[in-house]
Amino acid sequence: MFPTILFFVFSAVLLAAALGVILARNPVYSALLLVLCFFNSAVIWLLLNAEFLGIVLVLVYVGAVMVLFLFVVMMLDINLEELRKGVAGYWPLAVAVAGFVVFAIINVIVVRHLGGAALRAAPALPPGYSNTRALGEALFTRYAYPAQLAAVILLVASVAAIVLTLRRRPGVKPQDVAQQVAVNARDRVRIVKMASEKRP
Length: 200
Known about the structure:
By secondary structure, the protein is mainly α. It has 3 domains: 1-80, Four Helix Bundle (Hemerythrin (Met), subunit A) (Up-down Bundle); 89-120; 129-165. The protein is 70% helix and 0% strand. Helix 1 runs antiparallel to helix 2 (27-47) and helix 2 runs antiparallel to helix 3.
């Protein structure tokens, strides 16, 4: 009974934080609310005995991706008025996609399961069972090639992001490593010889 109460509490906080991500006017607040979404999702994974997924969600998304995203949002000079004008035309599409997602969720919960919306407790695991080990065996045996393909796609996306960031922009002073290495100390330091003065 207590895990069910925890599930409803964290699910309610998750839904409220998700709405805050969409409705917040400040992008920094949206990023912080998204961090709250990840934390609540991790707790729900832990309630479902998937401790590896919960820990990875906190370490990878909150500890790395969201921190990087937050720094990018804070460093970029975003014109919110222009952004809102550009997004305003996509509201019908957003409402249609949201309606389809809600319909799919209701279909899965109510129609596909005879018990309706009643929650089922997570199955009892045998002693000594390791969710991390089971996931690792499945990832490196049956799904080894898809995992490698996903890694290659992420590598290509990272290289593409770096190339797009390093494009030529006016007012930027690039670093010339060859010129820095070939510099002579005599060209950078000027030694001035002065006669010593006696203090009165």
